[in-house]
Design brief:
alpha/beta, Rossmann fold, 7-stranded mixed sheet, 6-stranded antiparallel barrel, 5 helices, 15 strands, about 15% helix, about 35% strand
Length: about 260
């Protein structure tokens, strides 16, 4: 799949919460084909002491206007600098990286898309692409509290959306694995797709295995290069050390050595 390194112009930077923002970038040239679940490496502009690019999941793609959206979690100096960019500024970007979700060859009809925290990022475009292909997804998202809920209206326009909050301040109290969709109603779905904190994903994978439902995970590893050269994102896949950035980040769960 074609990759480009290009200076993309900031069109919009929307602060969504204390810990998240949505950045829209625009390319002068036609963007290469981008698959849901892929990511990009963003060069942090004008930030002394930050030397490495930041790997950010691709949230949405607008092929008509050559625009791409990134849902960014503010966790350190680099991501806080990205959150401060203004329209008109330039961010050097390498994309698309990794292998995403294969929607074109998908045979599932009613998948459940499960996101924890900022792990909802790759699931938006996945939901859009599924709907375009006649697939009927359902979203299930988990956050710490009501204050962490973002983009609810945007996701709910694509598919039914359910929530859990750890403190019970909104919807079902607990983790995503406590929700009825992951328990009594899990057999309504023919596949699970999950992205979020590793403990959450492992719990979802276990539920899927017990219910004998196919499950796909989008791993959130630290990635310095995004090209498989630095080896900092290695995970054991099919019994072999594998670079998540190059061969993932999406894997079928039975390929992982998660017990």
């Amino acid at each position: 799949m074609q990759k480009i390194q290009s200076d993309l112009r900031v069109v919009d930077n929307q602060r969504l919460s204390a810990r998240a923002c949505l950045i829209t970038l625009e390319s002068i040239d036609k963007l290469p084909r981008i698959r849901a679940g892929q990511f990009a490496e963003l060069l942090v502009p004008d930030c002394p002491g930050v030397y490495l690019r930041r790997p950010i999941s691709i949230h949405a793609v607008d092929t008509e206007h050559n625009r791409v959206e990134f849902l960014v979690q503010l966790v350190g100096k680099g991501t806080n600098a990205l959150a401060a960019v203004k329209p008109g500024e330039i961010i050097n970007t390498i994309l698309p990286l990794g292998n995403g979700f294969d929607v074109e060859n998908m045979t599932y009809k009613h998948p459940l898309l499960i996101g924890g925290g900022i792990g909802i990022a790759p699931l938006y475009q996945l939901g859009v692409d599924m709907a375009k292909n006649g697939i009927q997804p359902t979203f299930l998202f988990g956050t710490r509290s009501k204050q962490d809920i973002i983009l609810m209206d945007k996701y709910s326009r694509i598919a039914p959306l359910e929530y859990t909050t750890e403190d019970g301040s909104f919807a079902t109290k607990g983790f995503v694995t406590d929700h009825v969709l992951m328990n009594a109603d899990i057999k309504k779905f023919d596949a699970l797709y999950v992205c979020g904190p590793t403990p959450m994903m492992k719990a979802v994978v276990q539920k899927a295995a017990l219910s004998q439902i196919d499950c796909y995970v989008s791993l959130e590893h630290k990635m310095a290069c995004g090209l498989g050269a630095c080896l900092c994102c290695v995970e054991v896949i099919d019994g072999t050390n594998t670079c998540v950035c190059k061969d993932g980040p999406v894997f079928k769960s039975d390929r992982l050595q998660w017990k």
